[in-house]
Amino acid sequence: MKLPSEAQLLRIFIGEADKYQGKPLYEAIVMLAREKGLAGATVVRGLMGFGADSRMHTAKILRLSEDLPIVIEIVDKPERIQGILPQIDIMIQEGMVTLETVNVFAYRHSSGKAN
What we know:
By secondary structure, this protein is α+β, with helices and mostly antiparallel strands. The chain has one domain (6-103): 2-Layer Sandwich (Alpha-Beta Plaits). The chain is built from two helices and eight strands; from the N terminus they run βββαββββαβ. The chain has helices at residues 25-35, 78-91, and strands spanning 6-15, 19-20, 23-24, 41-45, 48-50, 56-58, 69-76, 96-103. It has a four-stranded antiparallel sheet with strand order 4-7-1-8. Strands 2-3 form a two-stranded antiparallel ribbon. Strand 5 (48-50) and strand 6 form a beta hairpin. The longest helix has 14 residues, at 78-91. The protein is globular, with a radius of gyration of 16 Å. The relative contact order is 0.33.
């Protein structure tokens, strides 16, 4: 699959402990993106952060947190990103979602051929 040179980046900030229908919210969002055929999704676990309530979440050894920051990034065509936003809005109880236009320089789908 080759993406257009201009795409959208959907970035979702949630907590590791957030759930949707009994499973981790980040997992539910990634599965939604996969079911809808989006180009891909990446989940990044943060070492430290805070949200609107200013409560600190950290992975420091002396203060282990079970609710570290999670960022989910999805890049695809604007209409495909727009298509999942209503479902994501339903899934997220607390967090932040950002959307920005990005330039995609390369995306290569493995075709089984050696380059």
